[in-house]
């Protein structure tokens, strides 16, 4: 090998890989976010162990259950109390606690397939099981997902009614996260459910974030859940618990689901910390979600106004107004350029306007997700517009480098 070739090989070996660069940027982004004095959300999962444990005390979680009671074993005690509370909130006969939503939904739809005699599950192409679960439905549970639509919205009643093959269950993700946390109107949702019923299919709600949908629908949680035969909800996405999920529905379905929970390895020996954090989330965060949704609309409008005032040629807040307290922002720049500007703003000013990753949407087009929670309530519309102006100035510097 020539000296030149050897030098080039050595230089190449010293350059970090794309994966390494992404890892370093993520670590830098999270570090800047954690040290920022102003953010729009502070989800607990990025906290230290000490901070996570302290949260139970701050949320008065230790007052939510009798701590002199014997600890849970394989799903009794405090876990049963959480199941009862969840079933009551959703207006369902019973509920079962699961360590993950992936497991909960596989079990639910497997149980329904046994009842309907049809393993086909109609869902959206962007539904969580299709995008993020490595074909778990088909590879683990013997289910056959069929895609009703790939449009960036929930399926329509016509699409469900006219779908060209039979299915045993219709699964609706509310809100549809990968399309921008979008929801249908109440009328559209009821029509879709009716269309599924006409086809003698059961309806299952993937309600990981169903808790935050009440403002958009203008209906209480119980009335929304009543449309579905079964509902899955998460305890950490909106409620900031340590983890866990619940499946709610008819008593006979939930009883069978608990049997399958055991078979899938979900009968965990003890889960009291997670259950206690879920009860704390129901007590602390659930009542505040409507306030977060209302303020998300203030933040979204200020973002749009701020980008227009800063001279950005095109910017999109999606959906506008937001359907929940989470939404997307699209900008006509390279994702790496946007990510660097966002990190520099947090590092240099202590203000993390965009704390999440930027993903490619197309050539020189990227988007990020914005979460609006308790920390955002301290921001006025003027605060948001000023932060946008600072961000755009840093973005301009990055573009011209």
From TrEMBL:
SUPFAM superfamilies: PLP-dependent transferases (SSF53383). Keywords: Lyase, Pyridoxal phosphate. Its cofactor is pyridoxal 5'-phosphate. Coiled coil: none annotated. GO terms for molecular function: lyase activity. Gene3D superfamilies: Aspartate Aminotransferase, domain 1, Type I PLP-dependent aspartate aminotransferase-like (Major domain). Residues 75-305 form the Aromatic amino acid beta-eliminating lyase/threonine aldolase domain. Residues 1-28 are annotated as: Disordered. Residues 1-15 have a biased composition (Polar residues). Pfam families: Beta_elim_lyase. Belongs to the threonine aldolase family. This is Beta-eliminating lyase-related protein. It comes from Streptomyces lanatus. The lineage of its organism: Bacteria, Bacillati, Actinomycetota, Actinomycetes, Kitasatosporales.
């Amino acid at each position: 090998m020539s000296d030149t070739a050897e030098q080039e090989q050595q230089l190449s070996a010293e350059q970090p890989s794309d994966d390494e660069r992404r890892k370093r940027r993520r670590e830098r982004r999270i570090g800047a976010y954690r040290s920022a004095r102003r953010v729009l959300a502070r989800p607990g999962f990025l906290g230290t162990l000490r901070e996570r444990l302290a949260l139970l005390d701050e949320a008065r979680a230790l007052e939510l259950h009798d701590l002199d009671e014997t600890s849970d074993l394989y799903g009794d005690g405090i876990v049963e109390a959480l199941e009862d509370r969840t079933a009551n909130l959703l207006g369902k006969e019973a509920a079962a606690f699961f360590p993950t939503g992936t497991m909960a939904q596989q079990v639910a739809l497997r149980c329904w397939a046994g009842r309907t005699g049809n393993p086909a599950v109609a869902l959206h192409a962007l539904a969580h099981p299709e995008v993020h679960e490595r074909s778990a439905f088909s590879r683990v549970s013997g289910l056959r997902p069929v895609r009703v639509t790939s449009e960036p919205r929930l399926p329509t009643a016509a699409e469900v009614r006219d779908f060209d093959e039979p299915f045993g269950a219709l699964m609706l993700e509310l809100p549809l996260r990968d399309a921008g946390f979008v929801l249908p109107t109440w009328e559209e949702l009821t029509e879709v459910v009716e269309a599924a019923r006409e086809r003698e299919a059961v309806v299952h709600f993937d309600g990981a974030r169903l808790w935050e949908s009440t403002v958009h629908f203008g209906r209480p949680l119980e009335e929304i859940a009543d449309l579905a035969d079964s509902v899955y909800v998460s305890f950490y996405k909106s409620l900031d618990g340590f983890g866990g999920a619940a499946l709610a529905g008819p008593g006979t379905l939930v009883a069978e689901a608990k049997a399958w929970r055991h078979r899938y390895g979900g009968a965990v020996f003890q889960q009291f910390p997670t259950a206690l954090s879920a009860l704390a989330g129901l007590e602390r965060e659930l009542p505040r979600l409507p306030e977060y949704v209302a303020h998300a609309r203030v933040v979204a409008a200020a973002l749009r106004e701020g980008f227009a005032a800063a001279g950005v040629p095109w910017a999109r807040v999606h959906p506008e107004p937001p359907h929940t307290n989470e939404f997307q922002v699209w900008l006509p720049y390279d994702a790496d350029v946007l990510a660097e500007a966002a990190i520099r703003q947090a590092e240099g000013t202590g203000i993390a306007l965009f704390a999440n990753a930027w993903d490619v949407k197309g050539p020189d087009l990227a988007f990020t997700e914005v979460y609006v929670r308790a920390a955002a309530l301290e921001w006025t519309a003027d605060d948001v517009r000023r932060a946008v102006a600072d961000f755009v100035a840093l973005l301009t510097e990055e573009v011209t480098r």
